[in-house]
Structure formats: structure tokens, C-alpha cells
Prior knowledge:
- The protein has 81 residues and is mainly beta.
- The protein is built from no helices and seven strands.
- The protein has one domain (2-58).
Amino acid sequence: MFLVAGILVFGLPLLVSCRLDQLLTAGPAPVVNLRPDTIGVAEAKPLPVTVTAGGQVQGSVPLTFESSNPSIATIDQNGVV
């Protein structure tokens, strides 16, 4: 399952997709929350990601990160942009 959240990098919108590598139990759809949702020029920082379902935080959910435009910003397997 892919979950997509927007982030603003260098004043340009960028989509960061997170793939859930483990299925959650049946129920409410999962939601990905990224904070902060902006990153400055030449700044590298991890994106704290919280996955919730039905208002409950889903702990230790394995995620895979991907940038929609690696020429603007890259993201590693740990969520560092």
C-alpha cells in the first residue's frame, strides 16, 4: 500500500511516498503524517513520520521512502531528505 504526503523543499512542492511494507489489520485506512513539512535550502533532516489508523498511532510500521523528483531532493531509506 502506498501512502503519499506532500512536502515543500526549496519552495517547490515535492511528493514523498511511503510504502507500508507490512499490512495493517483490517479496519480504518492508514494516514501518514509528516512533520515538519518544509525543508530549507542545503538542509538535510530526517522526516519524522507517524502512521495512524482510526486515530491510533501504528508503532513500528516499516516504510519505504521515495522522492517524486530526485533532481530537486533525495530521500534515503531512513527518511532523511
